[in-house]
Amino acid sequence: MVLDPRSLVPDAIDQHDLQRLSPAALAYVGDAVYELYMRTYYLMPPKRSQLHHQAVVQQVRAEQQAEHLQTLIPYLNSQELEMVRRGRNSVHRPPRRLDPQIYQQATSLETLIGYLYLSDPSRLHQLFETLNLDE
After folding, report:
1. N or C: which end of the chain has fewer CB within 10 A?
2. 31, 99, 120, 134: which one is catalytic?
3. Residues 4-13: pLDDT tens digits?
C-alpha cells in the first residue's frame, strides 16, 4: 500500500500565494509529507512497530534525503529545479553533525516536496514512485 498524496491535499493554493511562501515554510510542510509517505510505504506488510520505525528512520535521515534528491534531479522540470535551488539557498546553519551540503540537499528535497504537495500532488506521487525504497 502506498499513500496517494492527493488524498491528503488541502484546497488548492493560488499560485501567487504559493510563491509567497518561504522555502522554510515549504520545507516544514515537505518534511511532514515525506515522513508520512515513508510511514505509509513501510506499513505493509504488517510488522512489529519497532521494525516499521527503523525502516522509516533510515529513510528520513538527511543523508538518505540527499540521495533521494540526486535520484530525482534528472526527472525535474525547470520550476521544480527552481524550488530545489530556493531550498538549498535557504539553509544558513546546518546541524553540527552534518556536512552542510548534505543538509542543503535534504532541505531542498523537503522544499520541493512541500511545493508539490501544495501545487501538484499527482506530480509528487509520480516522483515518489521513481524512488527505489526497497533496496
Report:
1. C
2. 31
3. 555 555 666 7
